[in-house]
Design brief:
Chain A: It is an enzyme of class 1 (oxidoreductase). The complex is a heterodimer of chains A (489) and B (203). About 3% of the residues of chain A have low confidence. In chain A, 37% of the residues lie in helices and 20% in strands. In chain B, strands 2-1-5-3-4 form a 5-stranded mixed β-sheet. In chain B, β1 and β2 form a beta hairpin. The chains are: A alpha/beta (489), B alpha+beta (203).
Chain lengths: 489, 203
């Protein structure tokens, strides 16, 4: 009898807790790239009673999956299916075309949410600190801008680059983005036309005269940051020779053989490099140049009226390597080398900026945090404020890295909820937090046109339709006006 | 043919969905199922439970498989929903990051990715088996590792990016179950909990 009674009590308690209408946990996510979506996914999964509103500065979602992933890597974009699943969850709301820090303030959010996740990524590029970097020399831009341009990022829709005036491009930096831009410049337009690369970029690439791409790094072959897949793709480019300082490569491989043999990824990368050195046939070429730090960008003089103000060359310091392998530094030898080029793409990394109300570590370029929980300058946890993705750990790594990192933030959020840790406190005691229900009318009052997920699906449908006509997966709208136009018709 | 399914749906009071079944042709019905399970994870659980109760007599499943090509999005209905016939299944053991052991019987021809997704085992497959990520990284019991075919260059390229790479690491999407893999144990490494693996089975 007693057992039955206990059972009834337990069942009742369970039933009661399952159906108690407690107010939901309201979470705002700033940024709709992989970091935002993976955090949302995990929180929704692990904490049922959650309502998530995701704010995006652009009209359309998915951040770097849409605007960063190379168009010839469509398989990487499969992650969007997971994001789609999150977006279809009735507890999720997408609010596009809203710029945090301009259209929407921290105060607005704090009044309507229990917690906020900042996952707006790294919207700027690092600078090189090179002479004439800030001069208005034409045909020099960041790889970020170039990638944004061919991927349809509105900010770079009208990027002015002349690909017809030169046969050589110099890419500064030796990461995967550097190889991405190099590959796009050297891939045949026929191949690219099957991808979702924007039509205007395709048009410019069709006229491109660039046949040689030189990818320059300040250190040696063992310090490159690109990975095997991307290097293999470069080596497999049809009709493309590969040049490098083979003496240096062989020497570095020989002297560090013990360390390389213990480091599987490095070992495999070096094998691809070594094997590729025999690629000596083709009318196009790509080069890995090591031990070069840019010193100065040089423009054509005014005596050449057609090319005035266009880049003519980059002057480099020649370096040598010093220090143990794990801490190799490049030291200038005092010798210089000038490389003639008509196009310079700077690919030395991205940089986050602090948006309104956030503490920021200028040295590391991140929001100070412990496993995703934002810390103030005295390392105190900020109630209800979290960070994920590049803003949390710096602009490095692949989507999978960001995924794990976002899961960590989500786990911290859920554990904070379960431990009843303080979240964002209420302004006024009597009004319950409303989330986007309260925020969207405020935004509309401010004259901001918000974009819902249903709106995005309409845009997506139009993009797919336009793509179908050109035998492409989609044709992206690269202007915000065009996106809005779809919604008006 | 859908009567049993409708009955189940009605008992679950998902009348809007069941009504749609009364009016549409087969293909549309399948689209509805797809949409329904895609809406949220709870629907997926309900749907899977319905299938469990109706056992493998439920016809549309194989049709959904046929229709997979028509849909761009992932469909939650995997071959696993039709359990293998008596004596034809192969056993697979998963060790979760928490150290829990999960044993499942799968069909020959299913990949580890298929099996984890069908049974809701926590293994993220971000690129859905297209060799563009390393999120389905698993550590294979050395006894079985040697039975597997050598990984391709493309798989190795992705494994190089995996967290906690070991001598017997593989991508779950590339391991396809065979008769001789019956009883295989794979460990799902933890990327977020800083657990160190030494390439051995954790038991």
């Amino acid at each position: 009898m007693a057992v039955v009674l206990v059972l009834v009590v337990v069942l009742q308690k369970k039933w009661f807790s399952a159906f108690t209408i407690s107010s939901p946990f309201r979470l705002a996510v700033i940024g709709s790239g992989p970091a935002g979506f993976y955090t949302a996914y995990r929180v929704l999964k692990d904490h049922q009673n959650t309502l998530i509103d995701m704010y995006e500065a652009l009209p359309v979602p998915f951040g770097l999956v849409r605007y960063g992933v190379a168009p010839d890597h469509p398989e990487v974009k499969n992650v969007q299916n997971r994001f789609e699943e999150v977006a279809q969850d009735s507890r999720y709301t997408f609010i596009g075309n809203v710029k945090y820090g301009e259209d929407l303030t921290l105060k607005d959010l704090k009044s309507q949410y229990d917690a906020i996740v900042f996952s707006y990524g790294a919207g700027q590029e690092k600078s090189l600190g090179v002479r004439n970097e800030n001069e208005p020399i034409k045909n020099i831009c960041s790889a970020r801008a170039f990638v944004g341009w061919y991927n349809g990022l509105p900010q770079y829709r009208d990027l002015e680059l002349d690909l017809t005036c030169t046969d050589t491009a110099v890419v500064i930096g030796q990461g995967n983005v550097a190889l991405d831009v190099g590959r796009i410049l050297l891939t045949s337009v026929v191949e690219l036309s099957k991808t979702d690369i924007t039509e205007y970029a395709l048009e410019a690439l069709r006229k491109s005269q660039i046949r040689n791409v030189i990818i320059v790094g300040r250190r040696g072959p063992l310090q490159v940051s690109f990975t095997a897949k991307e290097l293999r793709e470069m080596m497999n480019l049809p009709n493309t020779k590969f040049h490098t300082d083979s003496e240096l490569v062989k020497n570095e491989l020989f002297t560090n053989v013990d360390i390389i043999s213990k480091d599987r990824p490095l070992k495999r990368l070096m094998q691809i490099l070594e094997k590729g050195m025999s690629n000596s046939i083709g009318y196009k070429s790509w080069t890995l140049k090591f031990l070069r730090s840019p010193d100065e960008f040089i423009a054509h003089g005014n005596n050449d009226p057609f090319r005035a103000k266009y880049v003519r060359a980059v002057n480099f310091h020649i370096n040598r390597l010093e220090g143990p392998l794990e801490k190799r530094v490049a030291v200038p030898t005092g010798k210089m080398e000038e490389l003639e080029t008509g196009l310079v793409l700077k690919s030395v990394g991205y940089r986050s900026i602090p948006l309104e109300g956030l503490p920021f570590d200028e040295d590391k370029g991140i929001v100070p945090n412990y496993k995703g929980k934002i810390l103030d300058s005295d390392s105190n946890e900020q109630p209800g404020l979290y960070v994920a993705g590049w803003l949390k750990r710096g602009p490095q790594g692949v989507i999978a890295t960001t995924m794990y990192d976002a899961f960590e933030t989500a786990e911290v959020i859920v554990s904070d909820i379960r431990q009843n840790k303080p979240m964002i406190s209420k302004d006024t005691i009597n009004t319950a937090k409303q989330g986007s229900k309260a925020i969207i009318p405020i935004l509309h009052q401010r004259g901001i046109r918000t974009i819902s997920y249903e709106d995005w699906k309409k845009i997506e449908e139009k993009e797919n339709e336009a793509g179908k006509a050109k035998h492409k997966p989609r044709e992206k709208f690269a202007r915000v006006e065009d996106v809005m136009h779809v919604l008006d018709t | 043919m859908f009567s049993r399914f409708l009955q189940q749906l009605n008992t679950k009071r998902i009348t809007s969905l069941s009504n749609s079944f009364l009016n549409n042709n087969k293909r549309q019905q399948i689209m509805y199922i797809n949409n329904f399970v895609r809406q949220n994870s709870r629907n997926k659980i309900i749907f899977n439970n319905i299938l469990k109760t109706t056992k493998n007599k439920f016809v549309p499943i194989t049709m959904i498989d046929q229709f997979r090509n028509f849909s761009n999005s992932k469909v939650f209905c995997h071959k696993e929903i039709t359990p293998p016939k008596e004596g034809e299944g192969v056993t697979i053991n998963f060790i979760t990051p928490e150290g829990e052991k999960i044993t499942k019987v799968a069909n020959v021809g299913d990949s580890i990715m298929d099996i984890t997704q069908a049974h809701d085992i926590d293994l993220e497959c971000a690129c859905e088996g297209s060799l563009a990520c390393s999120t389905c990284h698993v550590i294979v019991d050395p006894k079985y590792y040697d039975k597997l075919e050598e990984p391709t260059d493309e798989e190795n390229d992705m494994l190089d990016l995996a967290f906690g790479l070991t001598e017997t690491s593989r991508l779950g999407c590339q391991i396809v179950m065979r008769k001789d893999l019956d009883g295989i144990t794979v460990t799902i490494p933890s990327a977020t909990r800083n657990v160190k693996f030494e390439g051995k089975k954790i038991s």
